[in-house]
Design brief:
The protein is α/β, with parallel strands linked by helices. The protein has 2 domains: 331 residues, Divalent-metal-dependent TIM barrel enzymes (TIM Barrel, Alpha-Beta Barrel); 67 residues, no CATH class. The chain has 16 helices and 12 strands. An 8-stranded parallel barrel has the order 1-2-3-4-7-8-9-12, surrounded by 4 helices. The chain starts with a strand and ends with a helix. The protein binds D-mannose.
Length: 405
């Protein structure tokens, strides 16, 4: 596995030096300041490459930008509305520009309106660390009482609806605002700029779009962009829904192995691939992660390794982000499946056998606490996660274990 790290650019609290000291081999980044739907120019791409090629004192870092996360797919493309054709043309131009700059892997998602969703961005754990959490009752309180989405109450089991009413009644105004801001954090435009009416307007756009229609739109998008990716030697990889179940009445189409299989088969080119995110898939008990890694393996182009602890047994239930090796996902088994896939690729002579992985998210620990970094991206918590994952990778690849020695 290629050990990479997400870097948000010049505003990131983690520096290039920090990445090097964490043992990072390559960088995952995106041009977050470029508006969705417009072209990523060669100049902007080169500027990002230049920034991460230098340490704080100007010495060469030896690091390269290796994975794009994300080249965003516009809401227009997802809905096939407005300027969607121009946006696809621009996406292809951006992809060509990235390819000319030496990049080969592009991660994107096809979640309508929301990217990831949590109800608490800094939930306190018994040891004083904090992590991100999704609480089904808080989420229902937001949906039913704060957003007041028509029909929301009927989408939850009665006990959750009742608990949400009690939870909402017990919250003061500040608590309600904080919850709305947390849920809205994964929305485009984010918390400060998006009002509840804006959220309602975004949701209304999907009233007429079923899951079947959304899947057809994704397949149309991939039918346009994948042949070009293939001819450029690039690999596209769709990120799963996070969490992997429907939210706010929106269709969600990339939550399970069957969802991915349908889309991989519909545009059956190696460049049409998967971002295997163990944290997203792992929030659903019916996703068997080691088996999914084995079966989807040949098309996995990027790995997000993190763990979640499910707090209930329903398909749509509470969970929090656990340490990388604890939680419900058997991370050792997943890593073993990845290493098996890498060996298979090497035997096949595939140039892309070394799959980029990044330690995804992490708990806020030590100096992360109080630093107010990007939620989910603490420097020390991720460094710890990477170190633990690297330990498993090194051990499982040792000749004593593989039998090669
Ligand atoms: C959250 C991330 C996602 C991911 C996008 C990919 O921390 O994993 O925001 O970057 O869904 O398009």
């Amino acid at each position: 596995m290629r050990q990479t790290w997400r870097w948000f650019g010049p505003k990131d609290l983690a520096s290039v030096d920090d990445m090097l000291q964490a043992g990072v081999q390559g960088v995952v980044s995106a041009l977050h300041h470029v508006p969705t739907g417009t072209v990523w120019t060669p100049e902007e791409i080169a500027a990002r490459q230049e920034l991460l090629s230098r340490m704080t004192d100007g010495a060469p870092s030896g690091l390269k930008w290796e994975v794009v996360e994300s080249l965003p797919v516009s809401e227009d493309i997802k809905k096939q509305k407005g300027n969607w054709r121009d946006h696809i043309a621009n996406w292809k131009t951006s992809m060509t520009n990235l390819s000319r700059a030496g990049l080969q892997v592009i991660c994107y998602n096809f979640m309508p309106v929301l990217d990831w969703t949590r109800t608490d961005l800094r939930w306190r754990l018994p040891n004083g660390a904090t992590c991100m959490r999704f609480d089904i009752v808080d989420y229902a309180a937001f949906d039913i009482h704060i957003l007041a989405r028509p029909g929301a109450a009927a989408e939850f089991p009665d006990d959750i609806t009742a608990a949400a009413a009690r939870r909402f009644a017990a919250m003061d105004d500040a608590a309600r605002k904080a919850l709305a801001a947390n849920v809205a954090f994964g929305l485009p435009g984010a918390a400060e700029t998006m009002t509840l009416d804006d959220v309602r307007a975004h949701l209304a756009e999907y009233d007429a779009i079923s899951a079947t229609r959304l899947r057809a739109n994704l397949i149309d998008f991939l039918a346009e962009v994948t042949p070009l990716a293939q001819s450029l030697g690039m690999r596209l990889c769709c990120h799963p829904d996070d969490p992997p179940f429907p939210l706010l009445g929106l269709p969600r189409i990339m939550s399970t192995e069957a969802d991915f299989r349908a889309v991989l088969d519909a545009v059956d080119l190696p460049a049409n691939g998967v971002t295997f995110c163990t944290g997203s898939f792992g929030a659903r008990a019916d996703n068997d992660l080691p088996a999914m890694m084995q079966r989807l393996g040949p098309r996995v182009h990027f790995l997000h390794l993190r763990n979640v602890r499910r707090e209930g047994t329903a398909l749509r239930d509470s969970f929090h982000e656990a340490e990388h090796l604890t939680g419900n996902t058997d991370m050792v088994a997943v890593i073993a499946a990845i290493l098996t896939e890498e060996r298979r690729r090497r035997a096949e002579g595939r140039a892309d056998w070394n799959i980029p992985m990044r330690p995804d998210h992490g708990q806020d620990i030590l100096d992360d606490l109080g630093r107010r970094g990007q939620p989910g991206y603490p420097t020390i918590g991720r460094l710890k996660g990477l170190a633990e994952l690297r330990g498993i990778m090194t051990a499982l690849d040792h000749p004593m274990v593989t039998g090669a020695g």
